[in-house]
Task: inverse folding
C-alpha cells in the first residue's frame, strides 16, 4: 500500500487528505479542486506553480525558474515536488487562481464517482480461478530402456496422463515430426503448450527443457479509433505491460460505416486487415520491448472488438453488417492462428487468437467483454454500462437480462476530429481548470510531460470549464467579446488558447476550436440520446438505475462531474458511478486468465438483446435535444442550471 | 347520466407580453379551447411592409399595393387605415447585401418614419442576412430608442448582437429558429442567458405553407405549445409569431395563372385561400400573431377567429 499524507495549504488552511506518497503537490491539489496556477501542464517550464514548503519533506528537483534565494527560503515548483510526508504548503499570491486573497477549495463536492485501483478493477468479478485456456506443462519422462520400450509419442502421452491427468490429447503433426529430437535434447524434460478445445486438449507446441512459469498472453481491445494491448503473465495472473496505438485503419475512414464501405473496394478488405495487423504488431513490439519478455513466450491472444473490427481483423466480409436486417456473419467464431491473419501477427505459429462473440451488427464482442469484465453479468443490481468510444455502446441490465445498443459518437472522446486531440498518452492534457475571473487555465498532463495535445478527458474537462466560466455558451460557441487574449478568432474561426506556444511541447499554441466543441457536443449527444432511448425502451428512468459503469480509453481519470457538466450523463448521484477504464480489456484479461470466463462470455452474448437505434424515431429527437450544453431540457441538470443562472445574473 | 366532456388542465400558460402597447399571448390552453382554459387576448394580425418595392411578389399582391410599393410610410398607413392591421411587420429587405444593400442608417430612418406614421406596434425585421442583420438592427435599435418596438430576427448566429441591441434600448426581439422544438428552445435559453427578459421574446419557429411543410409546422407549433402547457417549461412560454404571408405567397400556386395550372381555379382566390388556410391552421396550432399580405385573407381570418370563439 502506498502511504498517504495530509497536506495543509496556506493561506486559508485548506486541507487535502489522502495524497499518495510520491504524487506531486500540484496534482494532489488539483485533484482535490484546489487551484494552483500551472500553465505548462506540470512539466516544470512555466514556473507559475511556485509554492513554499513551510514544513514537511518533499523530493524536488532544482529549477532555473527559482532563484538561489528562493530555493533556500523553501520555494519549490509544485509540479516538480513529490510528497514524502505530511506537509504544510504556502501558496504565494502569484500562484493563486484569480490572485485570490485566501485559498479556497472549490465546492465541487468530494464525490467524483468511484475511481478504482488496479486491484479493485480486477475484483469486480469474483468466483473465478486462474486457469487459462492455454497452459504450459513441464513434462518429465522416464527415458526408454530395454524393458520400457514405449514409442516416443506414447511415452509423452502417458506422462501427460500420469502427471496431469490429461487423456485423449491430440498433437499437432509438426511436433510429432520433431519429437524424437526434442524429447531427448534435455534429458526427457519438455514443455508442452496445451490448449483446451471443445474436442479435448491439444498440444500446440513442444519445447525441450523447462519453460514453465514463462507463459504469457496478449489481450487487446480493437477499437475503431484506438487499439489497446496488455501483456499478461498467465502464471501469476498479472499485467506486465500495456501499450496503445491509433488503429491504422483510420486512414480509410473514421467510423465503422466508412470502413465497411472501403472494404468493398478492390483489395479493400485485405488492406484493412493488413492495417489492423500492422497496428497489432506495433503494439506487440512495444509490449515485448517494454517488458523485456521474449516474443516466443507469448502463447495466447484474446481480442475484443466491435463486430466490424472483429470481421475486418479476421478477414471476414463485413458487407451485410450495414444492410437491413443487419445480420452479422457469425456470433461465435472459433479461434484462429495469429500468424494466419494478413501478413501475420508476429508471434509463434502455435499462438491462437480468441475473439469475443458478437450479439448483433452493432453490438460486438467489445461490449460482451465489457459486461463480462465489469461483472454486470453476475450482479442483481440494475446497472447501466456505457463504453464511451467512437462507437458508443450502452447496456442496461443485470444477471437476468441485458439490453444493448450502440450509437455512433465519432472519435472525439478519443481525441479524434479534435484539432489538437491525441490519445491518452504522455504529454496529453488530461485535467483542466479555468479561472472564471481571469479565464486563465491550469493544466495537468499525463506523466507531467510538456503538453503536446489534449486527450478525451482533457477535452471534457476543458469544455466543462469553458462553459462554467462563461467562455462558451450553451450552444458551444465562444463569447468573443470577453476581455481575454485566450479567446481569439484565427482563420475565421473562434478558439481558446489552452497552452501558449512557449509552454507547449510542440512549439505551437494548443487550442480548442469551435469545431472541436461541435464534435464533442455531437459525440456526447449521441451517447446521451442512446441511453435515454434505451431506458425508455425498457420503461426505466435514470432514477431506477442502481449503478452506472463508465468505460472508455481515458487514461487514469474521467471526472464524472465534468462529464455531467457537459451532459454526457445527467446529474444523478455520483456515488452510483464507477469508472472502470478500458472495459473491453478487463473482459479480455479474464478470458485469458480463466477458461470458465470464456464460457461466461458466451453466456453474456446469449443473454444480451439488441435494440437498433436506426429504427427508432425517438432517437433523433433525443439527439437534437442533447445537442446543447449540457442539454436543452435542464431538468436533469439542476446543478448546472444554477451555475449558469448565476453566471448570467453576474453578467448583467 | 349526463355526458361530462373531459377537460385538459395544464400546469403552464403562455406569457402575456406587451408588444408596443398591445397585449399578446396569455392563454392557458390551446387557442379557442375555451373548454380547457382561458384565452385573454385574441390572436393578432400583422401586415408585412417592406422598405423597398418587392420585385418577387405575386401579381395578385401587386394589384393590392402597386402604388404604395416603394413608399413604406404610405404602405404602412394603408394596411392600418384600410385593412385594420393590428401590427406592422416591417421587413428591411433593402439591407440585403446581395440586393439593394441599403445602409443601416437609411433603413433605420425608414423604420423611424413608419413608427411615427402609424399608431400600431411595429416589428422591425432585418433582411435575414446573418452577416448584415446585427449591424443594421443595432442602428435600428438605437434610432428607435425611446419607442418600444420589436426587433429581429435573433438567430443562432446573430442572437448575441441582436439580443444586446434590444436590451440596450429596451426593445423586444423575435427569436427565429429552424423548424424544430429543441432548436427553438435552445435559442430562447441563449437569449435569456444573455440577460434578456423572457417577457420580451416572441418566437418565430419557422412557418411552412400549405403544400410546403404546413403539416410539419403545425406539429412543431403544437409541440412547442405542449412544452409550455404540459411541462410548464418557462423557456417555451413565449408567444409565437408565424410569417404566413411570406411563405404562402412563395408557393407556385399563388403566382401562376389558371392557364398554366389548368383546373386550379382563379389565381386571386387561389392565392388568398392559400394564405388563409395556412394561417388558420397555424392559429389553431398555437400562433399568437400571423403575418399576412392580403387584406381579404385578413378579413377571412378575422371572421374565422370570431367564429372559433363562438361569437358568430
Ligand atoms: S512549472 Fe509547474 S506547472 Fe509549469
Result:
Amino acid at each position: 500500500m502506498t502511504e498517504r499524507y495530509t497536506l495543509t495549504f496556506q493561506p486559508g488552511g485548506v486541507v487535502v487528505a489522502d495524497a499518495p506518497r510520491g504524487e506531486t503537490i500540484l496534482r494532489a491539489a488539483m485533484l482535490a479542486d484546489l487551484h494552483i496556477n500551472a500553465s505548462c501542464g506540470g512539466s516544470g517550464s512555466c514556473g507559475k506553480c511556485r509554492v513554499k514548503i513551510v514544513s514537511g519533506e518533499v523530493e524536488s528537483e532544482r529549477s532555473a525558474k527559482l532563484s538561489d534565494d528562493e530555493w533556500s527560503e523553501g520555494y519549490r515548483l509544485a509540479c516538480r515536488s513529490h510528497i514524502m510526508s505530511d506537509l504544510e504548503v504556502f501558496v504565494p499570491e502569484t500562484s493563486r487562481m484569480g490572485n485570490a486573497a485566501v485559498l479556497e477549495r472549490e465546492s465541487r463536492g468530494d464525490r467524483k464517482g468511484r475511481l478504482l485501483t488496479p486491484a479493485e478493477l480486477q475484483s469486480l468479478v469474483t468466483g473465478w480461478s486462474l486457469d487459462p485456456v492455454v497452459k504450459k506443462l513441464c513434462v518429465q519422462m522416464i527415458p526408454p530402456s530395454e524393458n520400457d520400450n514405449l514409442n516416443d509419442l506414447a511415452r509423452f502421452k502417458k506422462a501427460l496422463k500420469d502427471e496431469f491427468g490429461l487423456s485423449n490429447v491430440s498433437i499437432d503433426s509438426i511436433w510429432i515430426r520433431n519429437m524424437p529430437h526434442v524429447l531427448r535434447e534435455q534429458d526427457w524434460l519438455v514443455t508442452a503448450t496445451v490448449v483446451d478445445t471443445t474436442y479435448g486438449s491439444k498440444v500446440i507446441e513442444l519445447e525441450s527443457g523447462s519453460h514453465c512459469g514463462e507463459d504469457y498472453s496478449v489481450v487487446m481491445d480493437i477499437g475503431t479509433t484506438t487499439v489497446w494491448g496488455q501483456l499478461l503473465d498467465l502464471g501469476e495472473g498479472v499485467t506486465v505491460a500495456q501499450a496503445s496505438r491509433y488503429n491504422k485503419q483510420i486512414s480509410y475512414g473514421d467510423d465503422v460505416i466508412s470502413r465497411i464501405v472501403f472494404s468493398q473496394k478492390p483489395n479493400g478488405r485485405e488492406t484493412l486487415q493488413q492495417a489492423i495487423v500492422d497496428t497489432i504488431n506495433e503494439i506487440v513490439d512495444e509490449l515485448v520491448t517494454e517488458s523485456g519478455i521474449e516474443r516466443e513466450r507469448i502463447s495466447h491472444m484474446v481480442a475484443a472488438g466491435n463486430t466490424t473490427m472483429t470481421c475486418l481483423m479476421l478477414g471476414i466480409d463485413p458487407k451485410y453488417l450495414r444492410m437491413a436486417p443487419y445480420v452479422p456473419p457469425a456470433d461465435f467464431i472459433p479461434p484462429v492462428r495469429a500468424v494466419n491473419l494478413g501478413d501475420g501477427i508476429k508471434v509463434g505459429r502455435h499462438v491462437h487468437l480468441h475473439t469475443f462473440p458478437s450479439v448483433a451488427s452493432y453490438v460486438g464482442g467489445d461490449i460482451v467483454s465489457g459486461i463480462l469484465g465489469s461483472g454486470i453479468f453476475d450482479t442483481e443490481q440494475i446497472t447501466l454500462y456505457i463504453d464511451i468510444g467512437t462507437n458508443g455502446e450502452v447496456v442496461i441490465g443485470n444477471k437476468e437480462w441485458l439490453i444493448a445498443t450502440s450509437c455512433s459518437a465519432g472519435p472525439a472522446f478519443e481525441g479524434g476530429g479534435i484539432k489538437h486531440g491525441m490519445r491518452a498518452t504522455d504529454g496529453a492534457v488530461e485535467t483542466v481548470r479555468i479561472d472564471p475571473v481571469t479565464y486563465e487555465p491550469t493544466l495537468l498532463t499525463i506523466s507531467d510531460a510538456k503538453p503536446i495535445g489534449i486527450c478525451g478527458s482533457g477535452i471534457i474537462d476543458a469544455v466543462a470549464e469553458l462553459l462554467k466560466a462563461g467562455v462558451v455558451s450553451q450552444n458551444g460557441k465562444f463569447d468573443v467579446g470577453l476581455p481575454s487574449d485566450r479567446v481569439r478568432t484565427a482563420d475565421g474561426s473562434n478558439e481558446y488558447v489552452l497552452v501558449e506556444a512557449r509552454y507547449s511541447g510542440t512549439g505551437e499554441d494548443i487550442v480548442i476550436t469551435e469545431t472541436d466543441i461541435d464534435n464533442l457536443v455531437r459525440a456526447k449527444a449521441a451517447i446521451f440520446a442512446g441511453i435515454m432511448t434505451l431506458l425508455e425502451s425498457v420503461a426505466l428512468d435514470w432514477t431506477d438505475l442502481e449503478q452506472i459503469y463508465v468505460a472508455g480509453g481515458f487514461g487514469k481519470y474521467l471526472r464524472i462531474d465534468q462529464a455531467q457538466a457537459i451532459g454526457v450523463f445527467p446529474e444523478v448521484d455520483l456515488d452510483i458511478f464507477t469508472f472502470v477504464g478500458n472495459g473491453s480489456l478487463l473482459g479480455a484479461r479474464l478470458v485469458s486468465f480463466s477458461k470458465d470466463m470464456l464460457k461466461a462470455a458466451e453466456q453474456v452474448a446469449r443473454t444480451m438483446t439488441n435494440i437498433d437505434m436506426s429504427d427508432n424515431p425517438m432517437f433523433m429527437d433525443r439527439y437534437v435535444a442533447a445537442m446543447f450544453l449540457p442539454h436543452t431540457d435542464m431538468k436533469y441538470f439542476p446543478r448546472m442550471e444554477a451555475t449558469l443562472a448565476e453566471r448570467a445574473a453576474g453578467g448583467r | 347520466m349526463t355526458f361530462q366532456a373531459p377537460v385538459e388542465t395544464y400546469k403552464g400558460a403562455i406569457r402575456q407580453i406587451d408588444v408596443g402597447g398591445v397585449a399578446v399571448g396569455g392563454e392557458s390552453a390551446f387557442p379557442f379551447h375555451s373548454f380547457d382554459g382561458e384565452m385573454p387576448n385574441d390572436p393578432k394580425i400583422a401586415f408585412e411592409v417592406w422598405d423597398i418595392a418587392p420585385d418577387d411578389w405575386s401579381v395578385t399582391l401587386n394589384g393590392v399595393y402597386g402604388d404604395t410599393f416603394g413608399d413604406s410610410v404610405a404602405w404602412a398607413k394603408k394596411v392600418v387605415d384600410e385593412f385594420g392591421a393590428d401590427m406592422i411587420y416591417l421587413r428591411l429587405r433593402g439591407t440585403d447585401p446581395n440586393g439593394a444593400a441599403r445602409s443601416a442608417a437609411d433603413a433605420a430612418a425608414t423604420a423611424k418614419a413608419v413608427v411615427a406614421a402609424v399608431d400600431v406596434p411595429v416589428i422591425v425585421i432585418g433582411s435575414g442576412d446573418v452577416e448584415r442583420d446585427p449591424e443594421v438592427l443595432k442602428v435600428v435599435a438605437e434610432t428607435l430608442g425611446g419607442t418600444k418596438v420589436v426587433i429581429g430576427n435573433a438567430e443562432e448566429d446573430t442572437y448575441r448582437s441582436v439580443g444586446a441591441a434590444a436590451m440596450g434600448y429596451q426593445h423586444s426581439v423575435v427569436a427565429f429558429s429552424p423548424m424544430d422544438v429543441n432548436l427553438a428552445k435552445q435559442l430562447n435559453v441563449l437569449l435569456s442567458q444573455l440577460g434578456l427578459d423572457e417577457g420580451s421574446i416572441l418566437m418565430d419557429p419557422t412557418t411552412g405553407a400549405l403544400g410546403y411543410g404546413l403539416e410539419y409546422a403545425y406539429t412543431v407549433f403544437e409541440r412547442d405549445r405542449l412544452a409550455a402547457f404540459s411541462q410548464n417549461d418557462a423557456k417555451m412560454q413565449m408567444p409565437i409569431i408565424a410569417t404566413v404571408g411570406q411563405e404562402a405567397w412563395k408557393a407556385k400556386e399563388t403566382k401562376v395563372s389558371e392557364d398554366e395550372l389548368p383546373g386550379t381555379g382563379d389565381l386571386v382566390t387561389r392565392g388568398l385561400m392559400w394564405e388563409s388556410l395556412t394561417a388558420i391552421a397555424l392559429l389553431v396550432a398555437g400562433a399568437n400573431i400571423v403575418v399576412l399580405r392580403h387584406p381579404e385573407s385578413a378579413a377571412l381570418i378575422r371572421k374565422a377567429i370570431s367564429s372559433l370563439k363562438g361569437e358568430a
User: Anything to note?
Assistant: Confidence is low (pLDDT under 50) at residues 107-111 of chain A. Chain A is about 30% helix and 25% strand. Residues 268-291 of chain A form the longest helix (24 residues).
